[in-house]
Structure formats: structure tokens, C-alpha cells
Amino acid sequence: MTNSLNDMRHAKSLIFIGSNAPEAHPVSMQHILHAKEKNNAPIIVVDPRRTKLAAKASDYVRIRPGTDAAFMMGLVHVIIKNGWEDKEFIRTRVAGFEEMAKVAETYTPEEVENITGIPVEQTLRVAKTLAKNRPTSLTWCMGGTQHSIGSSITRSFCILQLVLGNMGKSGGGTNIFRGHDNVQGSTDMCILSHSLPAYYGLSDGAWKHWCRVWGVEYEWMVGRFKEKKWMNKKGFTLSRWYEGVLQTEKIHQYTPIKAMIQWGCGSNSNSQYARVKQAYDKLDLLVVVDPFPTMTAAACESDNIYLLPSSSQYETSGSVTSTSRQIQWRQKVVDPIHNCKDDYQIMELLVKKLGFADEFYKNIKQVPEDITLELGRGSLTIGYNGQTPERIKKHMENWHTFDIDDLQAKGGPCDGEYYGLPWPCWTEDHPGTPILYDVSKPVAKGGLPFRNRFGVEKTYDASGRSEDLLAAEGVYNPGSEVEGGYPEFKDVVPGTNWKTDLSQKTIKEAIAKGMAPFGNARARCVVWNFPDQVPIHREPLHSPRPDLIAKYPTYKDQQDHFRVDTRFESEQDPELVKEFPFVLTTGRMVEHMGAGAETRSNQYLAELQPEMYAEVNPRLANDLGVRDGEMIWISSPEGSKIKVKAFLTERVDTKTIFLPYHFAGILQGKSYVENYPEGTAPFVSGESGNTVTNYGYDIITQIQATKDGLCKVAKA
Amino acid sequence: MARSKIKQNSGVGMATSRRVTLNPKVARRSFLKLSVATAALTGVAMTTKMTTKVQAAGKKVPYAGSKIVRTICTYCAVGCGVEAEVHNGVWVRQEIASDHPVSNGAHCCKGAGAIDMVTSPKRLKNPMKKVGGKWTNISWDQAIKEIGDKLLSIRENDGPDALHFNGSAKVSTEMAYQHRKFAAFWGTNNVDHQARI
Predict the structure, then answer these.
(1) A248 near A273, Cβ under 8 Å?
(2) Helix axes A97-104, A68-81, angle to 10 degrees
(3) Are A180 and B140 within 8 A, CB to CB?
(4) Residue A327 to residues A123, A323, A402, A548, A554: CA-CA distances in angstroms?
(5) E strands, B61-103, where?
(6) Quick check: B179 contacting A, CB < 8 Å?
(7) Does B95 touch chain A (CB under 8 A)?
(8) What burial letters (b/e) apply to B97-123, b meaning 16+ CB within 10 Å?
């Protein structure tokens, strides 16, 4: 989130796309409804499904899954056509506007209706609502990302906010609601196959930086790898790791995957779950570290599997980063129960056994505080260095001193600081950055310009036009020595820049000059390192509109896409819809979380929501001869199927089937409940929605496309 | 689903549950009380009868010598405060965090049952391995030795990239950092977690 949940109280309008906050982020609703009640802010909800959030909307926009980019570009089209864009903001802080606007020209409201199913009048009405009620807070979740063009869709959201001038403002922003409790923290630490912590990437410079932080020789680290080239090559992802085991698709590494450690990760959130299960059976070693056995314990039917009982997070301590970038200290409530150990203890046992404990724990004596300090020393890119354990704990003790409207402490021991020291928190005196890219405050007081990351000038491929990528004269944070754009800071300590200077002198010098360590630049509408430099619509891989495939085809197939070949073009079959006529989409329910291992083992929640189901429109059900509560088979083009109860509701339209994805224990009609260790099977089980989610992955991130697949339905 | 059915299903584990909560019914009452406060938010329908039951439970008195631990809910990324009442090392009740600047005293139905993360009878209790298709309890020493030996042998024969490490968005930032660091020190970029999907 560029802003915070609390800051949404100041929005004058709100638009949610692929986000269902009352189910996925219930407590955020008090801030959202505050804006609705107090500011009379219209709420626009864009979703294929009439969700609980849609019930609170002033305008509900039903959209065909996977067509969000077309709708966004359509809104941009209407806004520009009416002259409603924020011309001064664009002139001074945005790059590539003209090239983007050229693309938006083709997304007329009529064409948007053809692609998305949204009526022309509604596109016009939404554009006007946003233009007349600024700032707008824009939110998306997995409904925006889990598509083969997810990276274009999310960029189109950002472009809408840039065009409206809603960035860096209280009440505005791109406010992505993150899912798991610490997914922001774990993303920042980059448990990701394409980067070292804090988004440093996998370049030699990144490895050398982190080796310095860890206190190990770079050459020693190179020696840990098969060969140096494997250090710089992106690894297999969670979406497709099992292809490394199954090898039915071509893989690009010297060995198949033979061992898997799965630590705090419910496996049935993977699409094509039947294939995941096959991979489990084939592995030489499978280690599950979790407070609960998870579906993995039941799905894996060979003797290769170990379960290590980790304690819950209430039986250990450490920091967690909320969706609002706030860092909170989760204090230990009780000691680990049963024969469980906490995560740190288990990691230490493994690392000692594997023989690199001296190097691994060089800076770590006191756990977890010394780890907080080590990760902070290295994570300068995102300013995790100012949030010491002492400061975070002080915030926990002084909750009552923080103002609910702006999250700033008014008096008391944390006076002037923002709750949770939202990153970047550049120094140990910095108050945290409550709103990213806000030039109305000094950098030392939580302000920031846009980051300079992609050079200082660009000549665009599409237009041949050259543009200065730094912010225009007159755009700067109060107190800045330079009263306009400037590049990132480097060579304050020779040979280093603001990201790699571990003495942090560079960062301190920038702040002392009233400037941002990362420079003051423009936000890009054109991303020249992506296949689509400006977001455009491309039909989902499995499209229900074969007539649109020729005009909006998907990408070329990708070789060695995170070490495995990934099909795009060759997978997009216009005939597929004939056999699989319905769009399949998934989502959450409030009573359950993720893969559901925790919540289905919680007696209260299991009672509240005990059963898997599929949402089917009554008209469709009547045509299929299915009555409410009857069992149906849902089959995917990949050949897997699930048997679930039909829940007749007009939340979905006649072309769409919705599945919650929290259930597990039953796979393709067969119960695996007996396979759990005795007494540990969750209170409730059911088919996993992800057994029938389709093949399909984002071109950039390889996120699985679970929101716009196809399926067929038959009475069971 | 009827409550009695759940109790039947959980029969095996209830003894364990009692060991960690002094009285599971207390937790249940506390849950109901919280649920009333948050019913409007979560859409959980509460009947009049249930509300009366809560009022009958009356004002609760802290356990003698208990302490309140402030912590953060482990479900979603809103980051709600939780106040845990701990008595003799046992988490006995939870309360809303009315001072918390984000949750502001609210909970959803998941957060209101946070205590069950510790009291659930469905938790794993010992390290286990599968032998001849049967789950078998083993010691931590045996588990780490066998897993470690197998990993080292795979590393020797197939190379470090024969391992895939799926880490977690449900651990602390310190632990998440160690997940990534572990993969680096092991010698692979085959490391990923739920943020990918």
C-alpha cells in the first residue's frame, strides 16, 4: 500500500478491483465505511461477482474475469477525452504520458463494453465519479493479479491513479491489500526465487552486498553453488516448482528437484493441485514444517515425508509488517506447546546439522532481535534500518497515543512518529513514511518524491520522443537543497551508493540536505523492460470469447521461464470454450484463511463455515437441471475434476462459477482424510478449488492465473 | 453443522485441549462476547439467544495473577491487536485491543478465535515420519539427523539445486529473512513462498 488502511478514511471516493475486503480484510472495513459515511465517498466495486463489498457499493461494476486492463484503459480514455486528467501532476511528475495516452485512444467505451461486458454508460459514469471526487483510493487484491496479464493489469491501476493525480496524497494511492498476516514482511525479505532480501535482485553486486552484511566471503558463497552462473539465475517458483519434479515439461537446470522443504505453506493454494500431489509422491524427501499437518501430509502417499511440528506464531516472537507497511512486534504469549519447537529453533537445528552454522549465525547471538538488526542493516533499499526492536516494542506499549486519523503519535514517548514506523524509515530518528511519494512533507518527517531508478532520460520506442525522467522544476519536498528533480545518491562513500553504503552515511547526508536518498524522478507509464510497454488487453489463455483472440492474442510461449518452459500462444485454443463453456474464478470467505489448515482446525470457524461449495447462478442451474444443494462435478481442461455442492446464487452471472479455495482433504471425489496423522485431520474438509484451476501464468511474475480459467459442469 | 457433530469429530483431541486451556468453555464464551461486538463487521448472524447467553456470563474477572500480553493477530495483513490473558503460562482468554490504532477494538470472526491457534486439538504434537504407510512419532534428534543426512546426500549426488525451499508469509519477518538466507547459504535460488501466488 502506498497509503494506509487508516488513511482511507480521507478518501473522497474509493474503487476496489478484485478485492473483497469484508471477507478478506474485515477489520479494514471500519476505515472504508468511515470514508463512505463521513465524506459521502462513493464506493465503486469492480468484480465478476457481487461480493459482500459490492453490497456496500454505490456503483457495482460486473466485469468479465481477466479484462481489468481494458476497463482501466477505457477509464483513462474517457478521462483524457473530457480533459479531466491532472495536467500539472502529469507535467511535473509523470513520464511516458503521451505514449500511454496513444494506447488508451483505442479503448473506447464501446470497445470496453465489447471486451469486458461493462455497459458504455457505466464506464462513463465511473470515470466521471472518479474525476469529480478526488482523491480516490484504489485497491486491488489477487483478483487483479492472478492472470496471465496480471503484471499489465496492476500497472493499469497505477496509470489510472497517475492520470487522476491521486498519488502521494492523503486519501489517494494504490492500496493493495496484502493477504497473509506477514506477506508484506516476507515479500520485503524476498523469499522469492528472483531476488535476495529487500529487492536487491541476483546480480553479483547484490550477492556482494549481502555477503558483506552476513560477514561471509563472497568467494565462499560462490563455492556453495554448483557453479557461479546458478547464483544469478532465477529459480523455480512456488507456482511451478512441481514441474521440476515431474519433468513432463522441459526444465532448465542440471538436476530435477528431488527434495522439498515446505515451511508454513498450505499446498492446496497451488493451482492444478492434482499435479502437485503427483510431485509429492515422486520426491525423495519431503519435509513439512508447520503447526498443522496441512493437506500435504494427507496428499503425499509415499514414505518420503517428515512432519516437524513448529509452534504457532503466538508461541514465539518477532516483527511482522502489515499491509500498511507498519512494523509491529508480535510478542510471545506462551511457550511452545506439546513437543513443538519455534521456527528459530528448528532452523538452528537444521543449519547446524548441515554444517554452516558458524557462517549463518556470525552476527546473531540474541534471537530474534539480532536478526532484526542484521536484516535492517542490509535492507537499505526499502528503509528497514530505522526500525530497531526497541522502537517497535515502544510503539506496541503506546498504542493509545497514536491518532486514528493520521496514525501519528500525539505526545507521549513516540511523539511525532507514525504507527509502526512504516517503511522506508531511513534512520533511527526517522518517524516512518506514512504515505509514499508525498512531496508535501520534508523527507525527514516522512515525505518522499518518486524514486529515480531507470536512468535520467529515455527515448521511447513507440514515438521516438525523448523525455527527462527526473521530476520537473518546482517539485520537491520542503527543505530540499535541490528545488526540482535529482538522481539517486552515490559516491558519498566512494564506490558505493545509497543502497550499498553500509555505513549509511549516504542516506544520512541525503536526509540532511532535505532530499530522498533514491532521488526525485517521475513515475513511468511506459515500462520498456516489459513485453507490453504500455498495458494492453490480452485474452485469458483459456478464453470464453474466441472471437476476441485474434485481436487480443496472448504472448509467445516462453522458454526457460523460471527454469521451466511456459506455454502461452500454444495454449490459447479458440475451440476450448466449446467443451468448457463456463468461466471459473476463485476467492476467499471470511471464516477461512488461505489453504485453510489453520481455520478448518479451529472449532469455532469450522462450525461457522463447514462445507465446500460452488456458486452457480440459478438460471444456469435450472438449465443444467441442478437444484440448490445438489452435488455437481466441475471439470478443468487439464483433466481434473471436483465434486462439490451447488450453491445457487445471483452473486455470479450465468457464465461464471465461483469456488472458495480454502478447503482440502478430498481430491477428485476421493477422501484423503484417513491419511492425516491420527487426531490431526481438520474438523472440516472438502474438495480443493485449486484442483480445477487452470494452467496459466503471468508473463513477468509467473503468478498462477486462478481467476479466469474455464470449466464444465455436470450434475453428479 | 451441529455443534455435537464437531465434538464427536474432535473426540480424540479434546484431552489435549483441556491441558492447554483451563476450561475450553471459557474460551467459547469469550469468543461469543467478541462476536457480538464484531457481528456487524463480519456479517456473522447472532441470535438473541446467543446474546443473552453472553450477558449471563457477566463481567469477567481476571484470573488471579494473570498477565495481559499484547500481540498481533496471525490471520490477515490488517495487523489487528490482540490482548492475551495468560495465567500460569497458559493462554486462558483473549480480549479485543481497544487501544490499537488500526483495529480500534474490532476483530473479525477469525481474530476473535485467535486463541484456538494454540488450543486446537488438531495441532501436530511430535515430529513424525511415515514408515510403511503408517505415521510414526520420532524424536527431534532422529528427525533432524535423518533429514539432514538425506539432504546432504542429495546435495552431494545431485547438487544444491535439487532442493526446493517453500518458505512462508506466516512467520515473522526475522524468520522470513532466514528462509531466504538459508537458501543462499545452501546454494540455490530455488526458494519461493506464497507472495508469488
Answers:
(1) no
(2) 110
(3) no
(4) 38, 10, 14, 46, 40
(5) 67-72, 81-87, 90-96
(6) yes
(7) no
(8) bebbbbbbbbbbbbbbbbbbbbbbbbb
d(CA B62, CA B67): 9
Domain segments of chain B as ranges: 26-58, 62-119, 128-196
Burial class (CB in 10 A: 0-12, 13-18, 19+), A445: middle
pLDDT-based confidence at residue B26 (cuts at 50, 70, 90): very low
Give the DSSP letter string of A144-158. HHSSTTHHHHHHHHH
Task: State the pLDDT at residue B20.
Answer: 40
- In the beta sheet, which residues pair with residue A195? A192
What is the rounded CA–CA span in Å between residue A322 and residue B78?
A: 6
Task: Return the bridge partners of B95, or none.
Answer: B83
On whether the CB atoms of residues B138 and A351 are closer than 8 A, the answer is no
Angstroms from B109 CA to nearest CA on chain A: 6
Q: Quick one: which of A533, A426, A445, A424 has its CA closest to A156?
A: A533
Instruction: Quickly count helices (H) and strands (E) in chain A.
Output: 25, 24
Do residues B140 and A339 touch, judged by C-beta distance below 8 A?
A: yes
> What is A496-550 written as a DSSP string?
-BTTT-TT-HHHHHHHHTT--TT-BBPEES--TTSSSSS------SS-S-HHHHT
Amino acid at A670: K
Residues constituting chain B? 197
Architecture of the domain whose range is B62-119: Single Sheet (2.20)
Cell numbers 476450561 correspond to B23
Each residue of A3-42: pLDDT tens digit? 999 999 999 999 999 999 999 999 999 999 999 999 999 9
The secondary structure of chain B in percent helix, strand, coil, rounded to multiples of 5, reads 45, 20, 35
The answer to whether the beta carbons of residues A93 and A78 sit under 8 Å apart is no
Instruction: Report the pLDDT averaged over residues A471-491.
Output: 98
Place of cell 511519494: A437
DSSP conformation letters of A92-112:
HHEESHHHHHHHHTT--HHHH
Q: A540 with A474: CB under 8 angstroms?
A: no
Q: What is the pLDDT of residues A518-555, one digit of tens each?
A: 999 999 999 999 999 999 999 999 999 999 999 999 99
Task: From chain A, pick out residues whose CB is under 8 angstroms from the CB of B196.
Answer: 192-193, 237-239, 701-703
Q: How confident is the model at residue B59 (pLDDT cuts 50, 70, 90)?
A: low
Task: Express each pLDDT in A105-125 by its tens digit.
Answer: 999 999 999 999 999 999 999
How far apart, in Å, are the Cα atoms of A420 and each of A183, A408, B71? 16, 10, 13
Q: With an 8 Å Cβ cutoff, are B171 and A261 in contact? A: no
Chain A / chain B CB contacts < 8 angstroms: 495
- Report in angstroms the alpha-carbon separations of A559 from A50, A244, A251, A593: 38, 14, 9, 34
User: How far is Cα A660 from Cα A177, in angstroms, rounded to an integer?
Assistant: 18
Among the listed residues B28, B26, B44, the one whose alpha carbon sits nearest the alpha carbon of residue B36: B44
Q: Do B184 and A210 touch (CB under 8 A)?
A: yes
Between the alpha carbon of residue B21 and those of residues A83, A504, B34, B66, B90, the distances in Å are: 64, 48, 18, 14, 7
3-state secondary structure of A666: strand
Angle, helix A343-354 to helix B140-158, in steps of 10 degrees: 50
Interval A384-408 mean pLDDT = 98
Whether the ω angle into residue A574 lies within 30 degrees of 0, i.e. cis, is no
The CATH code that applies to domain B128-196 is 3.40.50.740
- What is the rounded CA–CA span in Å between residue A651 and residue A311? 39
Residue with cell 485431520: A681
Grid cell locating A127: 470515470
Q: Which residue type does B68 have?
A: I
Cis ω on the peptide bond leading into residue A424 (within 30° of 0)? yes
Task: Tell me whether strands A564-566 and A656-660 are parallel, antiparallel or unpaired.
Answer: unpaired
Kindly report the pTM of this predicted structure.
0.94
